[in-house]
Design brief:
single chain, alpha+beta, 2 domains, 10 helices, globular
Amino acid sequence: MTTALLSVALLIGAAVVVVTVLGRSDGSRSVAESCSVEVDRTRWLLSPAQADNAALLAAVSVRRGLPARAATIAIATALQESKLVNLSYGDSDSVGLFQQRPSQGWGTVEQIMDPVYSTGRFYDGLVAISDYQDLPITEAAQKVQRSAFPEAYAQHEPRARAWASALTGWSAGALTCTLHAPRGAGSSDAFTARVDHDLGTVPLTVTAATSTAPATMLVIAGSLGGRSGLVADDVRGGWAFAQWAVAVAAQQNVTEVRVADRVWSRTGAAWTAATTAPLASGSVEVMLAAAG
């Protein structure tokens, strides 16, 4: 078999494997976990681990009051550099989401492996470019990264733009995840720590789990970004946080997210009309998996 034919055969075989994993018409296989954003009738998929990291990149931009364009550039760059996975290895001494190198002054390996630190360093470089919002992604990313393959960033722009739009609240109800049952009980302490890690201090009230009800958090998200820059109104703030919560749901054992008159749940895997009274504008309710 020639190399070309072998390549085609391998691609076909891979496609068959993907279809099998995603499920059969008789329902004998469970659907693979995935997260997606649908904008303009196009769905852009990421794995739950990638979605979790995309949520962090967007959250840090929200925290800094940066425009959505910054989140788009960051997500596209990380897709190219690491496939949106926090890698502990890479070319030469490159590590992390952005494959930053300690030997080039990005920080220590330990620092770079902290996604909030590495993302902050990326944005530090980006905002130092006075016209970065007007530049093509390839140019903006290259000025920060100094990559040997700068044109490669462009291929990720549509996916990055869609995810950034959802995670900054511009595209409401666009981000969903299809997930397996939670691996264990959710922790309100762990969830609160993740909010602080990604977004900083956000008003959050915890209702502790009881013998009959799981733990829930009520978040006042209208203040995201200091009400300036990226998220400047209650509606966008609410959707930005709600879709962030869905994107981190796999890791945080989230079972349900409510915002306005809509609700996402693991069982439904989509935003649907809530059966309860709408939440106040900018408020988000997050439910965690119960123990046992």
